[in-house]
Specification:
The chain has ten helices and no strands. It is mostly helical. The radius of gyration is 19 Å and the shape is globular. The relative contact order is 0.10.
Length: 219
Amino acid sequence: MDTLSLPGMSLRERKKLRTRQALVDTALRRFAEDGFDTTTLDDLCAEVEVSKRTFFRYFTSKEDVALAPTHDLWTAFLDELRTHEQGGRGTLLELLQAALLARLAGMPDDGWAERVEASCRLAAVTPSMSAHGLQFCDRTTRAAITLLRERFGFAEHDLRVRLAIDALVAAFHCALEQWTFRPGPASRDELKARLHEAFAAIPGSVTLDLSASSAPDPR
């Protein structure tokens, strides 16, 4: 669904969302065409016809706007994690995986997958974007830990919570890298399939016997 057509959204909300989306689309296109370092905030604002003050209502930097498509997914993941229920009790890792997949399924059909691909390709050759992404990842991880402790009563120093989230994030990045540089058009369903593969590989990764390191990939 196109986020601009969500029921109940006011005209003001649609205008704000449209401006934000225009900034992201323009930034990704200009960075790809003219270079990340060469393109200035003045260039972006002039093309979208907004002031720098308006830009900073939405984003903190060029890196922030360029990474917005993936960041939007993880922001939605935190929202999902507050209320997501499993069919049975299950494990924490299963809950995390289900919450991320649920939010992936809910991302808009308005070119979001294409934006993610463009953003990831740009980040691969732009060190400042990678650094910004790591900072965002750290903040998101800490927010998720706090949320899970409040919701389920985990002890403050229970390392299993952090390790479960780290496993989720690592699997996501593995899947995202494979998906970004695969042949063919960007597809949310394909990213979902890569995520399922990465999640399925987690248990085997912690029990992988070095004596069997030459064994073929179980896929």
